[in-house]
Amino acid sequence: MLFVNHNKMKLKTKIILLSKNIKDTNIAALLIGKSSIAKELGIHMNIHPASFISKLSDRIPSNLIITVLGNLIENAFDALQGMEEKKWVDILIKENNRDIILL
After folding, report:
1. What is the DSSP code (8-state) at residue 55?
2. Which domain holds residue 26?
3. What is the CA radius of gyration of the chain?
4. pLDDT on residue 5
5. Contact 95, 52 (CB under 8 A)
6. pLDDT for 34-56, tens place per residue?
7. If 43 and its partner were Cys, which of 14, 22, 72, 87 is the partner (CB 3.0–4.6 Å)?
8. What is the share, in percent, of the chain residues with pLDDT greater than 70?
């Protein structure tokens, strides 16, 4: 029971961080979903606490960012398949006045 509560708390912490820093709900939902998939695959997916993105304007549709970010994460998961050592995927999302940066 303690293990379940610990995992629930970690997920709750991740959701709080995402809701504070990732203002686009579709992107936040993608990251939460990919985080769950990572856990099933035995991959530790870390979303850097400095990640931040505001609500996207029409100049950059969120479905475009979701497609690119989703593909990058899936490619990282695929690259880790079959590895025995610790598996990590670190994600940093930043924006400035004209760009969105995915690392």
Report:
1. -
2. 2-102
3. 14
4. 58
5. yes
6. 999 999 999 999 999 899 998 77
7. 87
8. 85
Which positions ≥6 away from 32 have C-beta within 8 Å? 14, 15, 18
The helix (H) or strand (E) run that includes residue 11 is helix 2-21
What type of residue sits at position 100?
A: I
pLDDT bucket at 6, cuts 50 / 70 / 90: low
Domain count, the chain: 1
CATH of the domain at 34: 3.30.565
What pLDDT is recorded for position 8?
65
16 burial (CB, 10 Å; 0-12 / 13-18 / 19+) is exposed
User: Rounded to whole angstroms, how far apart are CA atoms 99 and 17?
Assistant: 22
The count of residues in the chain is 103
User: How far is the C-alpha of 13 from the C-alpha of 62, rounded, in Å?
Assistant: 24
Token pair 């100049």 in the structure block, residue: 59
Closest to 103 (Cα-Cα) out of 59, 26, 42, 48 = 48
- Cβ(81)–Cβ(75) below 8 Å: no
